[in-house]
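Good day; I would like, with your permission, to put a structural problem before you. I would ask you to consider whether the tokens describe a fold that such a sequence might reasonably adopt. The full record is reproduced below for your convenience:
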Amino acid sequence: MGESVRLEPDKIRSLLAAGDVDDKTWSRDELRTLLNELLANTVPANAELSGGAKSIGDVLAENSPSLGSLIDIKNLCKQLRVAPETGIPEQVSTLVYYSAIALGMTRCGERITVLDDAQLLTGFQWCLSSEWVSDDMRQVFSDAGAILE
């Protein structure tokens, strides 16, 4: 994976203590907590090129995020989706994955994925249907979906 993601807070440990991550059914509050923990992590790789280390959440909240940082976030989350040992549920890494793609489209005017329009619309709709997603993130998915329609 290259850069390692440090996800060791007590909140994550207590959520994971219940057993196998793959078999766990996550509550809305647990998913929101794990999302916030992932967003608090530093963007890997190109962070120093865009003015210093920033959290994933900081990059995703910027009006003009670095395209390189969005690509790094997308790639990190793509890897996290298939790495259960990190303790991050697939739903959380998938949401941040699509967030980076949607922001590339809406704030940078660039497509940073090889997924086709139908696949992107399906992913954005899934993100919009997730009850634990913030209103700000919801707007990004809605705006990106409008670009494709």
